[in-house]
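Example complex used in Figure S2.
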Amino acid sequence: MIRDDLYKDAEYAKSANHDEEHGREIRKKITKVTIILTLITILEVGVGIVLTRPMLGGESWSWFGIKMFYIILTVVKAAYIVLVFMHLGDERKNFRWVILAPYILFILYLLFICITESTYILDVMRAPW
Amino acid sequence: MAQVEEVDKSLVWAGNGSPFRLSYGKQFMWFFLVSDALTFGGLLTAYGFARHSVDSWPVAEKVFRALPFSDGDWPLIYVALMTFILIISSVTMVLAVEAGHRLDKKGVTKWLLATVLGGAIFVGSQAWEWSHFIHGSHHGAVLTEQGWAYVAGLEYQYDENGHVLMDGHDPAIQSLRLQFIDGGQFMMSGAEALEAYNTAERNLDGKLILENGLGVPVNIVGSDDNVTSVELLVEGTIYREMEGNVDSENWGELLSLYEGASSQIQGANLTENEYAPNAPAYADFFFFITGFHGFHVFSGVVINLLILIQVLRGVYDKRGHFEMVEKSGLYWHFVDLVWVFVFTFFYLL
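Predicted assembly (478 residues):
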């Protein structure tokens, strides 16, 4: 018996195959994304060495700005990896959102816990009573 | 009459196949990756929470500053190099997938082999990093009367023959540099304290805003408008350094702080570490987060190796598609993706 959720698998897999010319275009895109990812990493490390937390003060606005700068660059990097390297940008729209919606929600939750929630706990722990 | 809208049939799902037009295996690889992201997200969230809910936490630039075959000072360079290696192996992986879409077996073999090598180099680098982290620096951290200090520099006195001079049983110290890393509390007294007391601004709670952190006056001598001497209890939030050699003014105090140290930590384990003596969880998080990720990289290398063998045996040529390479590629990119987040949240922030 052929399972009705599997019998088209080979057809779907083969539909991703492409010719030489299309391949060249894709390789060009890969090269571009590689350069962008490398530049972002160099920029992050450069800023990390020059502008450190002790230098700016852990609770200053400039350190908050640096934090946001890192987080935004990280999300940009992640987006390039997921959409181009993992080809999620080429999948059907419904599947794209099935994957991206939980990711996006979870990243927002992570940021909230790391920044807002723990700062509140710190204040509670510091309080003299 | 009701208007009937023409819809492109190819965009409508009418049963008979997957609504995503994806194979079962690829679809569930994605679902697995979403759930795996939650595990890593849980670890990173716990890390962020633990880190921000205590006063002091080590700065990665001060902890990860070593490079193999070098004694120099390279803050974060090694980690950046590892990140770069992983990104490049992700690129070779996507090139293998692309070659697979052209049914180019030679291309797939070449790029998949490069990916396996890149992954192996990354795991090896991580092993070196762990070893360095566990063994620690030359002199470790010591608990002095003024809190935990990192022994950043220590030189002994030598005689003309190059032998270390002994002071009783201990080697005689020529110069010393202590970095107070805990950001904890210390006392400031004398002219320095008086000057700071008279000139510092006060915040809303009435605490003094000092260069080293916030200060609270204790033991005030004198009247309100003419304080003659004061001691300040400072809650340090930044590194405080003390350094000197046998000829310097503060030598006696510096040496007695070092020699009177009540305990010492060198390197790191699950219960204590020299990088954050007051936050042992720091090393725990390092081991768990990078270890869990390293295990993913290791298993990714094994999976890629197995697929490479299948490629060489010609299994996918017979099948007419190289989707298996694409599926293991998804896993491999995910491992890279997680490292991007680990790099930011553990090393940069």
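Residues 16 and 122 of chain A are 51 Å apart (CA to CA). The radius of gyration of chain A is 22 Å.
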